[in-house]
Design brief:
alpha/beta, Protein-Tyrosine Phosphatase, Chain A, Four Helix Bundle (Hemerythrin (Met), subunit A), 2 domains, six-stranded mixed sheet, 13 helices, 6 strands
């Protein structure tokens, strides 16, 4: 009898193991269960932070010139989806036989309507598909995580979060990390009914366009700072003082916009503080024979700190319903 009971128990163990409850997803930065298909990092010329999520889906940064698009072509990619606000380089993509789709999202999350459009584009358009934002670390991985939940029944919330963590998505982007946890899987019918509206270039607000320009100036100034407040060796065409001037002008123009003047007082105060910091940085970079490194660092940090405070309250948090 004991041998019989023991045999029954051995036969039941695999079934019990399959019915084990799935672990709850951990908060950003915590451990997550092993994904159904583990995303892997890929090194490609002209691209950064590339993840191979499946044979059909990759995520990463904006392609850099011919080199980036040539890498996508060599990879076999057929469709490129940008979730960045910047205007895609549609003409260059066409030269490499690639179709562009522009479905931008913000840092505050992935709106359901846009999430379903992105998922349907990944499902229905020729693949493999390359989904990107600017740097490939934050918005693109978040959109990719939601696409996984839409198209892969094996993918749990923890699996989706693991994709973002593998990409290096910052835990400070609480809106992006909230997206997979709050997302409700669509039925096939709901996804089929999602409009197949896949523009090459989407219309974005004027404020978003200004913010995109500000982000580009910051990218250049980070290189300038790393090079000791000089033109970086990799980009000798960058004029450090002119970059700081452009940054200050963008903040100034942003502060004059009606849609910014209607914002809360602290938003406007941080915008003004960023402009003042950028002006201080410009002045320090124009000092001859060599830039005033101490004042440059002070101006840089003043502008950056104001940006970080504003982003933490208004850009990076989950969007309000």
């Amino acid at each position: 009898m004991r041998r019989y009971l023991g045999l029954c128990l051995l036969l039941l163990l695999p079934t019990l193991a399959c019915r084990r409850p799935v672990a709850e997803p951990q908060p950003p930065g915590g451990a997550a269960e092993a994904p159904a298909v583990s995303p892997e990092k890929v090194e490609l010329a002209g691209l950064h932070n590339v993840l191979r999520v499946s044979d059909r889906l990759y995520s990463g940064s904006s392609p850099e010139g011919d080199t980036g698009f040539a890498s996508l072509q060599k990879l076999g990619v057929k469709t490129v989806i940008s979730v960045d606000g910047a205007k895609p380089d549609v003409e260059r993509a066409r030269q490499f036989g690639l179709r562009y789709v522009h479905l931008p999202i913000g840092y505050d999350g992935v709106p359901r309507e846009q999430a379903l459009k992105i998922a349907r584009a990944v499902r229905d358009l020729p693949g493999p598909v390359y989904l990107h934002c600017h740097h490939g670390k934050h918005r693109a991985p978040a959109a990719t995580a939601v696409v996984q939940l839409c198209l892969d029944d094996r993918c749990s919330i923890a699996n989706a979060l693991a994709t973002m963590q593998t990409a290096g998505t910052s835990p400070h982007y609480t809106g992006l990390y909230a997206a997979p946890g709050e997302f409700r899987r669509p039925s096939k019918l709901e996804l089929d009914r999602t409009p197949a509206d896949f523009p090459e270039i989407a219309k974005v607000s004027g404020l978003i366009e200004v913010m995109i320009e500000i982000e580009h100036r910051w990218d250049h100034l980070k290189l300038v700072r790393a090079a000791g407040w000089k033109a970086p060796p990799t980009h000798p065409d960058i004029d450090p003082a002119h970059e700081a001037l452009q940054l200050a002008e963008h903040y100034h123009e942003m502060a004059r916009r009606p849609d910014v003047q209607d914002r809360p007082e602290d938003f406007r105060r941080w915008t003004t503080a960023s402009e003042k910091g950028a002006k201080l940085l410009e002045t320090a970079l124009r000092v001859r024979p060599a830039p005033d490194a101490k004042q440059a660092e002070l101006g840089y940090k003043q502008a950056a700190t104001a940006c970080t405070q504003c982003h933490a309250k208004y850009r990076d948090v989950p969007r309000k319903p």
